[in-house]
Amino acid sequence: EKRYPPMYRVLKYGVSAVVTLVLLCGAFFVMILSLNLQGYINIAHDVERWIEHDHPFHYPFLSALAEEGGWFDSKSDYMSFIPVILHAVVIQTMNFCYRHVAEQLTEWENHETEVDHQNSLILKRFLFEAFDAYIALFYLAFYERDVVKLRGELVSVFNIDTFRRLGVEFILPVVMRKFAEKECKNDDAKKKKDDDAPNTNDASTLKSEMGGEEYEEFDDYLEMVIELGYVTLFASAYPLASFIAIFANLVEVRTDMLKLSKVHYRPRSIRTDSIGMWKSVIKCIIWTSALT
């Protein structure tokens, strides 16, 4: 490139990697706190293994809260879900924050083409959100080596994420759209009263449709890929996940139709020969699932 030396972009790649790595360390720390609160990290569960040295990730004051009679008693049918829900909320918050960080970093990298820009953004966001979603499962499977804990964590996280996705993707936007339509009608009524001008239904409908949000397929792709990982990476730990995923996807097909027709305005049609970087991401998950 004559105007932008490739070496500058390589240096920016390094900066982006360092920033992402620091944030991933924060996500790992949050995961450790969550597993302690759920009682999954406890020396008493494997005394022989930790009799000679301390557990590096065990925080007794947190794991004590998951013991019988504690705030988050692991045997309780309700209180034991609070740490899982809190962890899910923190994960979504971190993903939301990193989304803006990734967009800024990718823009700063100054890619030559739009395809390179999108591929870089996909790679960043997938690595971060996949780490957030799967790190606890890999930790329980390969470090704690406890299938029972793995199954419990997978069931909780997968089910909560499924219901969260259905609610956030459709119910919340529809409610917000209803409020927007109500405000639009109130504004039209006020304008008609002030100006004594006719209020046509066509103009009101057009204004309502233009008030919809722009549809972005990026998040839909990302959520489907993350769900694929939940189903395939640890299929033996939670075989029912595939059936739940099928049911959730059938429901989501209908909600996406309503979302595209009622919540968002019509997206632009862009011709393409493949799904791009997402195909490589899916291949990576499939190959990894063969090892797990």
UniProtKB/TrEMBL annotation:
Its main location: membrane. It is found in: Membrane. The keyword Membrane applies. Coiled coil: none annotated. GO terms for cellular component: membrane. GO terms for molecular function: chloride channel activity. The chain crosses the membrane at residues 12-33, 78-98, 126-143, 228-251. Residues 187-210 are annotated as: Disordered. InterPro entries: Anoctamin, Anoctamin_TM. Residues 2-292 form the Anoctamin transmembrane domain. Keywords: Membrane, Transmembrane, Transmembrane helix. Pfam families: Anoctamin (PF04547). Residues 187-196 have a biased composition (Basic and acidic residues). It is a multi-pass membrane protein. This is Anoctamin transmembrane domain-containing protein.
